[in-house]
User: Fold this.
Amino acid sequence: MSRARVYKTEAIIIRHQDFGEADKIITLYTPYIGKITAIAKGVRRPKSRMGGHLDLLTRSNLLAAQGKNLDIITQAHLIDSFAPLKAELWRLSCGLYAAELVHRFTPERLPHASLYNLFTVTLERLGKYDKGELVLRFFEMRLLDLMGYRPELRKCSSCSGVIQPGPNYFSSAAGGVVCEECHSARPLPNDRAVSVNAVKVLRVLQGESFETAVCLKLGRELASELDYVLRSFITYILEQEIRSTGWLDTLRRLENTVSPGLSPPGTP
Amino acid sequence: MEPDFTPAAEPVARLIGEFNKLPGVGPKTAQRFTYFLLKQPEEEVRALAEALLAIKDSIITCSSCQNLVETDPCPFCSSSERDSSRICVVEEPMDILALERSRGYKGLYHVLHGAISPMDGIGPEELKIKELIQRLQKGEVEEVILATNPNLEGEATAMYLYRLMTPFGVRVTRLARGLPMGGDLEYADEVTLMQALEGRRQFQP
Ligand SMILES: [Zn+2]
Ligand SMILES: [Zn+2]
Assistant:
């Protein structure tokens, strides 16, 4: 009889599903193992000591045992519950969206410590800054870099000519901005016009530090253009919709109709 | 040990497939259920089949509180003993059973049938939120108690409902989170202790 191998890891909980009477199947993102799916037994009972340490968007130290199908979490100890993030609906929803992106971009057990760090600081920033939209766009651009989909923003992705200020297009299929001539010569199905300002902001998000990027001021129109450009690019890469975007859209609409001021979703 | 004839006969495979669709039932458990039933006397199996059909024939949704019940309106909504100025909002019908066992609540209920879970594509449209707002629009409700689960999705659902209910001017409360009874303080985890501290109230012995 072989003893189950036990291991320790830090992790952020990115997904959970109820399983059986009181168990949960939990998807964890870890710095050195990557994404893991594991089972936590009895955590839905209020008396479980692990429950609070294994809630969504919580960073914990875990002890787990390798199982036949799923690993089993035997101990969990909270490092950071990201309390400021969770204190407010818009912020926590942005955090759930970031978690979904991490989930959809990563296969199981492929370690990527830089992505883990990016994800962690993003959850911290969402709790700290009032500019959720900007924090998310910065996260998306860096995520695309890390995953090998860095969009080309300075040269035309088709003819390599320098992108001039003027009418240009963002082409998901070509992997970046294309000039007008290339677009009209051979328009691709997912091309969409992109404004000069949007290209400028994308360059800042791609090339500058977060501290610089967070000082940008985006009007509502520019913010939604950037959201749309990156959303279509990511959807194109993943070949599937990001489900949480629907919820973020619901909250944006709510903000525009009832009770303004309760929680500003980022951009003024 | 369960008999090991592969491939399983068609009706056996079919039943395994059906059990496998149940929440929390994997292929192994589905197989165990199936072979267990194969060994049972016929009247036992017939009783199970009839019980399964009966829930579909007789259980309906209460048009007011959305609970799964046998009559519409349900016994809670039609009772004159219950305080109709209070609505306690829960995620699942089973939560009502738990709250009723406490005997501490005499108001009405509202079952959402889930919690907001963006990653699973569950938003307001998938829950019985519209129906709750319709109940508030009648203007008889004074207090709404948010009793969604004390986890992130339950909190998100509570915060969202709070936003929707603000224009109605009802008093919105949330179940206090804290220590489970019967446990020792020293065994409580930090998260629970922190929430218990935050939710502390005036001591009235
Ligand atoms: Zn070109
Ligand atoms: Zn009812």
Q: What stands out?
A: Residues A 156, 158-159, 161, 178-179, 181-182 surround zinc ion (ligand 1) (CB under 6 Å).
